[in-house]
Write a structure and sequence with these properties.
single chain; mainly beta; 0% helix; 34% strand
Length: 191
């Protein structure tokens, strides 16, 4: 059986599948039922644009309680039968970078819990990756200074590193051999 809650105008705003306990938010067509624990339904032809407002998104996470730097809105994940509150396995947070209310610059951070001290720690999240408000990506770096800033070794699974024109500059053969193509310049000396 499926139960619905209607708005004062008579439109469906919430649908609950009592067999699966799945909850649907939004207007579902008559035969359609919520397909997950929480299913947000919208019917819109709006395209992604810099001018999109909050009302166009399926889900909005908004922390209106603070303008303080590093305050956040986010999603916490955990997969465990343990019922102790505040044990988080991973998280995605949008973190405020300014204390000025009108400045909406947010960094997006991704954190994981590699070891919470055998289940005794409630705050063992470690930031692993950050995308800054100006588009820089840091892996193992909280304040990336370049488009991609990595603290640690990297593995390139493809064979080539290309320049902005798409030309191969450095090529790997998978056996530890490297070819540098084109000219190599050190200071003002070309070799």
């Amino acid at each position: 059986a499926v139960d619905s809650i209607l708005s004062t105008l008579g439109t469906q705003v919430l649908k609950v599948d009592t067999a699966t306990h799945h909850v649907g938010i939004g207007e579902f067509a008559a035969p359609e039922i919520p397909r997950g624990t929480l299913h947000v339904m919208t019917s819109s032809v709006t395209q992604a644009a810099a001018s999109n407002t909050m009302g166009l998104f399926n889900l909005v996470l908004n922390n209106s309680g603070s303008n303080q730097t590093n305050s956040f809105a986010g999603i916490a994940f955990d997969v465990s039968s343990e019922t102790v509150a505040n044990r988080i396995g991973a998280a995605i947070r949008a973190e405020r970078q300014s204390g000025v209310a009108a400045n909406h610059s947010l960094d997006l951070t991704f954190s994981t819990n590699n070891n919470d001290n055998g289940g005794t720690s409630t705050d063992a999240l470690t930031e692993r990756m950050r995308i800054t408000s100006d588009g820089k990506v840091g892996i193992g770096v909280a304040t990336p200074g370049y488009a991609l800033d990595v603290n640690g070794d990297i593995m390139i699974r493809g064979n080539d590193i290309r320049d902005s024109a798409g030309n191969v500059c450095i090529s790997f053969d998978g056996s530890g051999n490297v070819d540098i193509l084109g000219n190599v310049t050190y200071a003002t000396t070309q070799f």
